Amino acid sequence: MLESNPQPPSTPAQRLETSAPTATKAGFDFTAHMRSMIEDAVSRLPELHHIDLNRVAITFSQARKRVTHGLFATLTPMRFENGARTGLRNGRRWRVQEIQGPDKQEMLYILSFYLPRFMDVDFQEKLVTIFHELWHISPEFNGDLRRHPGRCYAHTHSQREYDARMAILASKWLRCQPPECRYQFLKYRFQELQSRYGRIYGLHVTHPKLIPVD
Prior knowledge:
The protein is 25% helix and 25% strand. The protein is of the alpha/beta class and 214 residues long. Helix 2 packs across helix 3 (159-175).
């Protein structure tokens, strides 16, 4: 059973509330545990030191079909190219609906995991997926994506090579010997996690809207 802590949209911004990880027979806070794991990775790996997790909303979405193919996770940038607050689409200028954190800080990225699909792949693939999405965050941390040379600016010319690099990054993090409690939950499949803790819940936000500027 999946349960969300929905954040009702307001105008013009959505407000988020985060929580500390909890795991009891009453339930498992997936997004809080995911945040704890990512905080550890960001603190240990110089390649990720540019990421300010206070401005990254970590959420989950429910996958429509119980299959092991399709999207496992997505990173949504909250600004346009080079961190611009507005951008042109179809001849009109737009801005992205703002999302604010608990301290009214503006969120620059939304990192969302699709459940139960994400939890139903093996441990290594979960780690590659997490680092895959984190690597999309611009080194300037300006709300835009990391842009590689060429037409395929998001994944370079080969997504396979991109993911192979992420596997190396994941292995580097594990060699730093992070506390196992930070990532133990990733070793379970969704039903196993549910059997241990009951309901699975976490932060869920409405996808931000594009708002016309003019």
